[in-house]
From TrEMBL:
PANTHER family: OLFACTORY RECEPTOR. Belongs to the G-protein coupled receptor 1 family. The gene is LOC101980589. Pfam families: 7tm_4 (PF13853). CDD domains: 7tmA_OR7-like. Its main location: membrane. The chain crosses the membrane at residues 26-48, 60-81, 101-120, 132-162, 197-216, 237-260, 272-292. It comes from Microtus ochrogaster (Prairie vole). Residues 41-290 form the G-protein coupled receptors family 1 profile domain. It comes from the Eukaryota. It is found in: Cell membrane; Membrane. It is a multi-pass membrane protein. This is Olfactory receptor.
Length: 322
C-alpha cells in the first residue's frame, strides 16, 4: 500500500458512531443538546464561583478550573463531529486531527492533576485544618495549576512531534468518532515503538501517580472521619467529599473502560461507548453532581439567577426577544 509523509495527506476518515443515514438526524440533535447543556452547566459553575465571595476558596477555585477544562474537552471533539454529521462527510484534515490529539492529551492530564489537587485540598482541610490557610493559600493554588498547565503543554507538544514522524496511507480510516490518540497510532504504517514507550511512561506518570495520590488522600480522610466524635462534622465532611468522589469515579471508571476495551477481540463499538463517557457524559454530568450534592453551589447559583433576572438590562433584552 502506498504511503506518504503525513504532511501530504489531505485528510483522515472518521468512521463515526453509525453509518445509518436515518440515525444521523437523531444523533445530531442528541449531541448538539448534550453539547449545549455541558457548556451552559459548566459556565454557570464558573460564574457562580466567581460571583459568590464565600466560594472564593481553594476547593471551588479548582472546581471552576475543572469546569473550564470540561468546556474545552467537549468543544474539542463534538463540534467537528456535528459538522461531519450535518455535511454527511467523514473527513478530518491531518492538522485538525493532530490538534484534537494535542488538546485532548493536555486536557486529560489537567483533569488528572485537578482531581488530585481537589483530593489533596480535602485531605488538608479535614486532617490538618489549623494549617489549611497556609498550605492551600491562593498563591500556592494558582501556582500549582499554572505549573501543571505548562507541564501538559510541553508533554503534549513532545507527543505531537513524535506523531509527526509517523506515516499513514491516503484516506486512512480511524474507527472512532474523533482522533483518539491510541487509534491514530494504530493505523500508522511506520514503526510506533518509540511513541508507544513514551505513551506508557506518560500514562504511568500522569495517570497512575495521580490516582495513587487520590487513594492515599481519601484513605487518610476516612481514617480521620472515623476518629471524629461529632456526627455533624462527619456529615459535613462527607457532603463536601461526596461530589468529588462521584466525579473521580466517573472519570477514572470511563478511562479504565477505554483501556480494557482495547484488549477485547472486537473493541471498536465498546471503545467508542467508553470514550463517550469521559469525553461527553462526564463533562455534562459534573455540574449536576456538584449542584445536587453541594448546598453552597446551589445557593450561589440561586443568587446568580436572581441577580440576572432582577437586572433591568436583562429584562429589557428578554422583552425585545419575546
Amino acid at each position: 500500500m502506498e504511503t506518504e509523509n503525513d504532511t501530504l495527506i489531505p485528510e483522515f476518515l472518521i468512521v463515526g458512531l453509525s453509518d445509518n443515514p436515518e440515525l444521523q438526524p437523531i444523533l445530531f440533535g442528541l449531541f448538539l443538546s448534550m453539547y449545549l447543556v455541558t457548556v451552559l452547566g459548566n459556565l454557570l459553575i464558573i460564574l457562580a464561583v466567581s460571583s459568590s465571595s464565600h466560594l472564593h476558596t481553594p476547593m471551588y477555585f479548582f472546581l471552576s478550573n475543572l469546569s473550564f477544562i470540561d468546556i474545552c474537552f467537549i468543544s474539542t471533539t463534538i463540534p467537528k463531529m456535528l459538522v461531519n454529521m450535518h455535511s454527511q462527510r467523514k473527513g478530518i484534515s491531518y492538522r485538525e486531527c493532530l490538534t484534537q490529539v494535542y488538546f485532548l492529551a493536555t486536557l486529560v492530564g489537567m483533569d488528572n492533576f485537578l482531581l488530585t489537587l481537589m483530593a489533596y485540598d480535602r485531605f488538608v482541610a479535614i486532617c490538618h485544618p489549623l494549617h489549611y490557610t497556609v498550605i492551600m493559600s491562593p498563591w500556592v493554588c494558582t501556582l500549582l495549576v499554572l505549573i501543571f498547565w505548562i507541564i501538559m503543554f510541553w508533554v503534549s507538544l513532545i507527543l505531537i512531534l513524535l506523531m509527526n514522524e509517523l506515516k499513514f496511507s491516503r484516506g486512512t480510516e480511524i474507527p472512532h468518532f474523533f482522533c483518539e490518540l491510541a487509534q491514530v497510532i494504530k493505523v500508522a504504517n511506520s514503526d510506533i515503538h518509540v511513541i508507544n514507550v513514551f505513551m506508557y511512561v506518560l500514562t504511568s506518570l500522569l495517570g497512575v501517580i495521580p490516582m495513587i495520590g487520590i487513594i492515599m488522600s481519601y484513605s487518610q480522610i476516612i481514617s480521620s472521619l472515623l476518629r471524629m466524635s461529632s456526627t455533624v462534622s462527619k456529615y459535613k465532611a462527607f457532603s463536601t467529599c461526596g461530589s468529588h468522589l462521584c466525579v473521580v469515579s466517573l472519570f477514572y471508571g470511563s478511562g479504565l473502560a477505554v483501556y480494557f476495551s482495547s484488549s477485547v477481540s472486537h473493541p471498536s463499538k465498546r471503545r467508542m461507548i467508553a470514550s463517550l463517557m469521559y469525553t461527553v457524559i462526564s463533562p455534562m454530568l459534573n455540574p449536576f453532581i456538584y449542584c445536587l450534592r453541594n448546598k453552597d453551589v446551589k445557593d450561589a447559583l440561586g443568587e446568580l439567577v436572581n441577580r440576572v433576572v432582577s437586572c433591568p438590562s436583562v429584562l429589557r433584552t428578554l422583552r425585545q426577544i419575546l
